[in-house]
Amino acid sequence: MTETKRSFYVTTPIYYANAKPHLGHLYTTLVADTLTRFWRQRGIDSFFLTGTDERGVNIERAAAARGIPVQQHVDEIVGEFQETFRVFNIEYSRWIRTTDAFHKEGVQNLWRHLDERGFIYRGEYKGWFCVYCNEFKEVEERAEQPLCPTHERPLEIVAEESYFFKLSGFGDRLLKLYESRPEFVQPESRRNEVIAFVAGGLRDFSISRISVKWGIEVPGDPRHTIYVWFDALANYITALGWGNRSFQDFDRFWPALHLVGKDILRFHAVYWPALLMAAGIEVPRTVFAHGMWHSGGRKMSKTLGNVIDLYALRKYFTPDQVRYFCLREMVFGRDGDFTYEALIDRVNADLAAGLGNLSSRTLTMVRAYCGNRIPLSASNAGNEFGSEAGEVRQAVGQAVAQFEREFERYSFSLGLEAVWAAMSRVDKFITDAQPWELAKSPEKHETLNHVLCTALEAVRHLAVILAPVLPEGSQAVWQQLGQSGKVCEFGPARLRWGGLTAGGEIGEIKAIFPRMDKGKIMEEIKLDEPAARSAEGRAEGKGNQAPTAALSVVPPEAVAESESGGDGIISIEEFARVDMRVGTVLTAERIPKADKLLKLTVDIGAEVRQVLAGIALYYEPESLIGQKVVVVTNLAPRKMRGLDSNGMIVAASVGPEGRPVIVTFKEDVPNGARLK
Ligand code: MSP
pTM of the entire structure? Predict the structure, then answer.
């Protein structure tokens, strides 16, 4: 929020429409959603923008790999994103698609505007380009083809006529901006990186492509399309109606808080404010760069194939559980590692044993000892637990205030930690006061009422304050307390200790955050994941049983037929019976109604084989095309989903969930070469 303006505008990056969403995408979106709920509950006019980035060479290629028209491809992916965000209870204000007509109009107007002001010229650009990042990469001069540091895929040389934006003239103005407004780039460590980058000197920024057809035409030169990052960044203003007549929200909401992953900070903290300065538009309020979720120790990304699938996540966990975990577990701005085990532990410790238990034990006592009604209590009863009750009230008050402060500065985990510390204090108070003992003596009823009212007040405060983080759980607690209306509309500023009306009836008590059976759920999750079986989709075999990483090379059939004893040792002759060949993936596609299988055709030198592999949850089909793989070629053919599989792709089975990592080669190896 700005000092001068009582409005809040938050954006997420717009997500590439080239593959289905994963936890990395959900993360930024659920933080934006939480912040919007936070400010809205405090009466601030709020707007939350998210959407999809649908242009550029990468999208073109993803559609080509699927063999469908680009528009159909992006429509399908956008549908998946929207549906996923819906089932995770994300309530955005507007969804922008860069294929929307109003966006195109806005982007072309921004271009014209910059051109008229003299900030665009024509030249030639040549450099190493990563099609997955959609950007040119700065790499050291070397003879061989360098790899993208993010995706570890080969870079391509791109040289073509291009229009440029005169970024080089903006160094001083940008440095002044970072200097005078330290909150502009956050967190501090990222701000320092950005300052160092700009201080090192800026080069003009190439903003058009001749080679890319799937893009917005450059005004006045239809041979060129507008570079996808120029197009994408502009979404933050076109979505409010800048440069088009579809919306009139620009004056009401701009400038924005941009939430972005640290991998795309430079675009947002350097290129974007420079473009806006050149256009004479106010720069954003803040660009906050968060860290990366890792899984299995590596950044989670579709290209690396280790993403946490949101369909599986939603199948076992509620939106509140996932949201709480993400906000509590990861310090906003730093990296974090995702494991299902850690998620279940948090759910059990903090939600089931914490908030859920506190709320249900308090309400159950109200039902048992007070006839389902909020008891009447003198506000500072001079009873034996009077001073402890005072401490509880103070602890809750302080936690509420700290939660506010921490959320205002994006320290979500600290804010939640403070609230949970207060919760423990309330729990201890109940345990010390032993209401179940007080209830036995009629002369202690006043004390009992005071203890229960204190606990009820604490729970009510927690429900209000946690509404942005646990929208469903907080509302359920609110109703069980017998409160009417929506807790998300109850501004924390209205919270008064003693605000509960004596005599009010409490609602039906239901478990809000049930405990999860970790062992059982982990088993189910593993069974769901094809990798726990193998890269070929067969039943569990010997090769997959190692706990951390194992190569699933030996088919169970071969082991069963072996003459060896039970010690697992095989002879060289037995090993030689397995024929493994180098191959290149020619085509890769999903199989309708088989979430886990990919259909591949692989050139193994002497022939082209069709192989079905159970890796669809971990690899995007298009990322496999052209990849060298190892195929077990003398495995008996089998049918799956009515399709023939004639071979097995060799993969390591990594981590407890058995994520498949396909075996490949550093050097160029010809197809058909045998492994021995
Ligand atoms: N289309 C561009 C953004 C344009 S914004 C004008 C883009 N798209 S993306 O789909 O590749 O990534 C979107 C966001 O997801 C980025 O902020 C990126 O950092 C984030 N994440 C991708 N993987 C992530 C994790 N493993 N963890 C956390 N966030 C991650 O870049």
Answer: 0.78
For residue 533, give the DSSP letter. T
In the structure, what pLDDT confidence band is assigned to residue 541 with cuts at 50, 70 and 90?
very low
The catalytic residue among 103, 130, 262, 290 is 130
What residues does each domain of the chain span? 337-494, 550-558+572-662
Does residue 461 carry a catalytic annotation? no
Which atom of ligand 1 is the closest one to the Cα of 260? 17
For the segment 574-602, what is each residue's pLDDT rounded down to a tens digit? Answer: 677 788 999 988 778 888 877 788 999 88
| Topology adopted by domain 337-494 | Isoleucyl-tRNA Synthetase; Domain 1 (1.10.730)
With residue 222 as reference, give the H or E element that holds it: strand 221-226
Distance of CA 25 from the midpoint of ligand 1 (Å): 6
Dist. CA 262 → ligand 1 center (Å): 9
Neighbour count for residue 450 (Cβ, 10 Å): 25
What CATH number should be reported for the domain whose range is 550-558+572-662? 2.40.50.140
Active-site option among 73, 103, 104, 151 = 151
> Is 299's C-beta closer than 6 angstroms to any atom of ligand 1?
yes
φ, ψ of residue 474 to 5 degrees: the values are: -65, -40
- CA geometry: angle at 549 spanning 544 and 555, to 5°? 30
Q: Which residues pair with 288 in a beta bridge?
A: 186, 259
pLDDT tens for each residue of 620-642: 877 787 889 999 988 888 877 77
The closest-lying atom of ligand 1 relative to the alpha carbon of residue 233 is 6
> What distance, in Å, lies between the first and last C-alpha atoms of the chain?
64
Residue position matching structure tokens 């860290």: 291
Distance of alpha carbon 298 from alpha carbon 338, whole angstroms = 10
Best of 11, 18, 28 to mutate for ligand 1, by most ligand atoms within 8 A of CB?
A: 28
Name every residue whose Cβ is closer than 8 Å to that of residue 359 and which is 6 or more positions away in sequence: 459, 463, 477, 480, 512
